[in-house]
Amino acid sequence: MSYPEPTYTAGEGEISAQYRPADTAPDLLTRTGGSTHYLATTETTRGEFGLYRIDMAPRAGGPATHFHRSISESFFILGGTVRIYNGEQWTDTVPGDFLHVPQGGLHAFRNDSDEPASMLLLFTPGAPREEYFEKVSQVSDWPEKERAEFFAKHDTYWTD
Predict the structure, then answer these.
(1) Which of 63, 71, 138, 147 is nearest to 107 (CA)?
(2) I need a surface site. Which of 61, 118, 126, 140 has the fewest CB within 10 A?
(3) Within its chain, how far is the Cα of 146 from the centroid?
(4) Are the CB atoms for 74 and 98 separated by under 8 Å?
(5) Does residue 18 belong to any structural domain of this protein?
């Protein structure tokens, strides 16, 4: 493998970095008492990746087994115990654990513990996951056709 073709070809560099302090308020609060921080969106990375910090409340549960056709998803555990399914087995992770799920890989995650948990989610290439995060808790109230369209639009295919 080699480096990709350059995307920046002008001048001698520019001031374009984006700093986000640790105490920045979350971008989204969840129904279960958790939060989501949009650290690097597809828009800010020009489609290269999306990076999100997910803070889960105790016993928050999580999504059922699913896969993505066009994006990979990686998990890095920051705190607490996140239960992750890698397509074969469930594992109780600890801070510092990492899981990469390529396109097509079955996976799921949940917080079944009595303590909060936190992790980074990395999607590559970037995809507009913000709308997914903001609306996924509402789809159970939608008609089946609208739910199916929403999940297909957001590259999420359920196996259960």
Answers:
(1) 63
(2) 140
(3) 22
(4) yes
(5) no
